[in-house]
Amino acid sequence: MSGKGNCYDNAHMESFFHSLKTEAVYFEDFETVKRGMRKVNAYIKYYNEQRRHSSLGYLSPVQFEKRVN
């Protein structure tokens, strides 16, 4: 790793967190932490199983893994 504050060290996770925030968290008003966690967990499931990724040929990560293996 090149150092603190360098987003390129962990670009894939930075990209995921950006997607999470803009698609599921921003503009939401969660009444409880539990509801917020449910929303985040549901988004992670959606992100891996349904959301299409241009870098994967417009397949979800699960679909891509099935094709590769």
Textual characterization of the structure:
With 69 residues, the protein is mainly alpha-helical. The protein has one domain (7-68). Helices cover 58% and strands 0% of the residues. The protein has 3 helices and no strands. The mean pLDDT is 89.
Features:
69 residues, mainly alpha, flat
Summarize the structure.
The protein is mainly alpha-helical.
Class of secondary structure makeup: mainly alpha
Number of distinct beta strands: 0
Indicate the proportion of strand residues: under 5%
Radius of gyration: 15 Å
Q: What does the overall shape look like?
A: flat
Mean pLDDT: 89
Order of H and E elements: HHH
Q: What is the topological layout?
A:
Elements: H1 11-25, H2 33-49, H3 61-68
